[in-house]
Amino acid sequence: MDLIYTNKNREDVGVLKGYKFDLAFGSDENDFELTLDINQHCCDSGCLVYIEDTEYGGIIDKMKITTKNQEMKYSGRTWHGILASKVIEPDAGEAYLIISGEANEVIGTLLDRIGLADMFTVSAEDSGLTISNYKMNRYVDAYTGIMKMLATVSGKLKFTFTGGQVVISALSAVDYSQD
User: Taking residues 172-179, what's their average pLDDT?
Assistant: First the structure.
């Protein structure tokens, strides 16, 4: 798979070769480490790395040179981690944020609230999931808050990097344990 990297303006620059790319997703790990030969150093903090049409990618936050192994190590937050780095706050004067609507529309509203609408876009498709008067935990990180909200309607999140943006979709969760 081609691992593409961008500049700080999120413009594609090229495809990385001979890389090691380790990603972690979940409730406590939403980060990645990318290792290249030191002679292939090409990225800076703020650049994106991604595999087109997959959920694999993120933003580079740190860089480290390991001269012993002649390696360049980049680390950062996956798309999940970027979402987790933002906090959902209640409206001024309110104790909680209460939200309702079609799940993708609600997620779009939340992305606008937390300032990620420039990096993330929400699927225009109807998810078939309806959020009804969901009371968001106070000052919860966006990843956890959205995942808990979707769990109340048997939903899950899907991330796909395509067309220069991360597309987020709410989907019905499917239980395959009986198959």
Answer: 74
